[in-house]
Amino acid sequence: MIRTQIQLTREQEKALKELANREQRSLASVVRDSVDEYLIRHRAIDRQELRERVEELAGAYRSGTRDLAEDHDRHLDDAYDPAHSSNR
User: Fold this and answer.
1) Contact, 27 vs 16, CB < 8 A?
2) CA nearest 88: which of 72, 73, 68, 74?
3) Are 27 and 15 in contact (CB under 8 A)?
4) Of 5, 6, 36, 58, which is most buried with the most CB atoms under 10 A?
5) What pLDDT score was predicted for residue 47?
Protein backbone atom coordinates (compact mmCIF):
# COMPACT_ATOMS: atom_id res chain seq x y z
CA MET A 1 0.00 0.00 0.00
CA ILE A 2 1.01 3.57 -0.55
CA ARG A 3 0.91 6.03 2.31
CA THR A 4 -0.69 9.35 1.43
CA GLN A 5 -1.78 12.43 3.27
CA ILE A 6 -5.12 14.12 2.78
CA GLN A 7 -6.89 17.05 4.39
CA LEU A 8 -10.42 16.62 5.73
CA THR A 9 -12.82 19.00 7.32
CA ARG A 10 -13.43 18.50 11.02
CA GLU A 11 -16.92 17.22 10.19
CA GLN A 12 -15.58 14.68 7.69
CA GLU A 13 -12.99 13.41 10.15
CA LYS A 14 -15.54 13.13 12.95
CA ALA A 15 -18.06 11.28 10.75
CA LEU A 16 -15.41 8.90 9.41
CA LYS A 17 -14.07 8.12 12.89
CA GLU A 18 -17.59 7.48 14.18
CA LEU A 19 -18.27 5.14 11.26
CA ALA A 20 -14.96 3.33 11.78
CA ASN A 21 -15.68 2.89 15.49
CA ARG A 22 -19.22 1.70 14.86
CA GLU A 23 -17.99 -0.89 12.34
CA GLN A 24 -14.90 -1.74 14.43
CA ARG A 25 -12.60 -0.88 11.55
CA SER A 26 -9.65 1.40 11.06
CA LEU A 27 -10.13 4.90 9.73
CA ALA A 28 -7.82 4.01 6.83
CA SER A 29 -10.01 1.04 5.88
CA VAL A 30 -13.13 3.20 5.82
CA VAL A 31 -11.36 5.81 3.68
CA ARG A 32 -10.08 3.16 1.23
CA ASP A 33 -13.58 1.69 0.85
CA SER A 34 -15.00 5.16 0.34
CA VAL A 35 -12.46 5.90 -2.37
CA ASP A 36 -13.25 2.56 -4.07
CA GLU A 37 -16.97 3.34 -4.12
CA TYR A 38 -16.33 6.80 -5.52
CA LEU A 39 -14.08 5.43 -8.27
CA ILE A 40 -16.57 2.73 -9.22
CA ARG A 41 -19.38 5.28 -9.46
CA HIS A 42 -17.34 7.66 -11.62
CA ARG A 43 -15.90 5.07 -14.00
CA ALA A 44 -19.36 4.32 -15.36
CA ILE A 45 -19.58 4.17 -19.12
CA ASP A 46 -21.05 7.37 -20.39
CA ARG A 47 -24.50 7.12 -21.95
CA GLN A 48 -23.27 7.84 -25.49
CA GLU A 49 -20.75 4.99 -25.37
CA LEU A 50 -23.41 2.65 -24.02
CA ARG A 51 -25.82 3.69 -26.79
CA GLU A 52 -23.13 3.06 -29.42
CA ARG A 53 -22.47 -0.44 -28.03
CA VAL A 54 -26.17 -1.30 -28.15
CA GLU A 55 -26.51 0.01 -31.71
CA GLU A 56 -23.60 -2.20 -32.78
CA LEU A 57 -25.40 -5.26 -31.42
CA ALA A 58 -28.83 -4.45 -32.82
CA GLY A 59 -29.60 -6.87 -35.64
CA ALA A 60 -26.30 -8.70 -35.24
CA TYR A 61 -27.96 -11.99 -34.30
CA ARG A 62 -30.74 -14.04 -35.86
CA SER A 63 -33.12 -16.19 -33.85
CA GLY A 64 -34.63 -18.00 -36.80
CA THR A 65 -38.08 -17.13 -35.48
CA ARG A 66 -39.97 -14.84 -37.83
CA ASP A 67 -42.60 -13.58 -35.36
CA LEU A 68 -40.31 -13.06 -32.37
CA ALA A 69 -40.87 -9.30 -32.19
CA GLU A 70 -44.65 -9.57 -32.44
CA ASP A 71 -45.17 -12.67 -30.28
CA HIS A 72 -42.30 -12.43 -27.80
CA ASP A 73 -44.44 -13.24 -24.73
CA ARG A 74 -45.46 -16.62 -26.14
CA HIS A 75 -41.87 -17.40 -27.09
CA LEU A 76 -40.69 -16.54 -23.57
CA ASP A 77 -43.42 -18.74 -22.08
CA ASP A 78 -42.28 -21.58 -24.31
CA ALA A 79 -38.64 -21.03 -23.38
CA TYR A 80 -39.25 -21.09 -19.65
CA ASP A 81 -41.96 -23.76 -19.60
CA PRO A 82 -41.50 -26.39 -22.34
CA ALA A 83 -44.81 -28.02 -21.30
CA HIS A 84 -46.50 -24.77 -22.24
CA SER A 85 -45.52 -25.12 -25.91
CA SER A 86 -46.80 -28.70 -26.09
CA ASN A 87 -50.28 -27.43 -25.20
CA ARG A 88 -50.53 -25.60 -28.53
Assistant:
1) yes
2) 74
3) no
4) 36
5) 66
Rounded-to-integer distance, Cα 77 and Cα 72, Å: 9
Q: pTM of whole model > 0.85? A: no
| pLDDT for 86 | 56
Cα torsion at 9, 14, 17, 23 (round to 10°)? -120
Q: Average pLDDT across each block of 10 residues of the chain; the chain has 88 residues. List them in order.
A: 92 96 94 84 68 75 75 78 62
Q: Does residue 60 contact residue 53 with C-beta atoms inside 8 Å? A: no
What's the CA gap between 54 and 49, in Å, rounded?
A: 9
Output the CA torsion sign for 54, 56, 59, 62.
negative
Report the sign of the C-alpha dihedral through residues 54, 58, 62, 63, in that order: positive
